[in-house]
Amino acid sequence: MYRLIIWIILSNAVCFAQSSEMSDPNIPKNLNRIISLAPSLTESIYLLNMGEYLVGNTVYCNKPDDAKNKQRVATAVDVNIESVVRLKPDLVVATPLTDFRAIKKIKLLKIKVVTFDQPSTFNQMTRQFLELGQRLGQQQLATTIINRARKKVGKDNKDALKNVKKPKVFVQLGARPLFAATSDSFVNDLITYAQGINIAEKEKNGIYSREMVLSQNPDIILITSMGMTGEEEQKNWLGYRSLKAAQTKQVHIIDSELFCSPSVESYIDALIELIALLHPQLNWKLKP
Question: What range does the record give for the signal peptide (predicted)?
Fold first, then answer.
């Protein structure tokens, strides 16, 4: 569980099923075996119709379901280099969260490794997704998926929210220490779109205190899923009778993978869920 929390905090930082779109015919001939060292990259690989080429991933790569059938070669940070070598990959994709020493060793073994930065906004994510598509020979499919997603988060849907009252939101990513979502997190990008105010947005780091939360008195508290710890934190916050979020029972547990490390498509799912939490009175529906 500690490793999972570390993953969420550092990444702040994706397609629940393979796309039915037609693939590009130019998949690199030497690209037959791929290893992914991040859940978001694993989901994106499936979204690009390249799941059949995926031979290994991390213990946290659970979406789509088929990803669970791949060999686990890493945790949130650590990589089993022997397992990687045995799988004979043509390409390993990673993020800065992956142990840099393991990446260095893999490269010394003449295995190609591409490290993708952790995006914190929708626009950054689409650029990264396009780069992944290009490397996998699926640029056309990647462009189609991006254009479809951009249309859904476009002006027509955003304008429907422009006159709503903006609630103050606190997003808790970790418990010990208390850790909040700041401006460099995906959750902050989602809150901004959903017309909310992230009370921790301007903090230089995510370390927070309960006293700071109580003084800012948010309307809504969102806790990323942390197993029993998440449920304990929810109960703790509901116990503060002076807190607006507790008075209105607006303390919710949200899916950490969905909100902290979404894919181009699951970003839309996270957005729909967040808007329902922030503005339940709207009965807001996404226009296709």
Answer: 1-17
> Which of 281, 273, 222, 270 has the alpha carbon at shortest distance from 250?
222
Amino acid letter, 31: L
- Return the number of other C-beta atoms located less than 10 Å from residue 221's C-beta: 25
Q: How many residues does the chain have?
A: 288
Cα separation, 59 vs 121, in Å, equals 25
Beta bridge partners of 251: 221
When the pLDDT of each residue in the chain is averaged and rounded to a whole number, the result is 87
Q: Which domains can be identified in the chain, with CATH numbers? A: 2-152 (3.40.50.1980), 158-278 (3.40.50.1980)
DSSP state letter for 24? P
- What is the C-alpha separation between 67 and 44, in angstroms, rounded? 11
DSSP 65: G
Instruction: Using a cut of 0.85, tell me whether the model's pTM lies above it.
Output: no
CA distance 2 to 89: 29
Can you read off the two tokens belonging to residue 173? 């990513």
Closest CA to 8 of 214, 193, 229, 169: 229
> How many other C-beta atoms lie within 10 A of the C-beta of residue 199?
23
How many of the other CB atoms lie within 10 Å of CB of 108? 8
Is the separation of the CB atoms in 38 and 94 below 8 Å?
yes
Contacts of 29 (CB under 8 A, 6+ apart): none
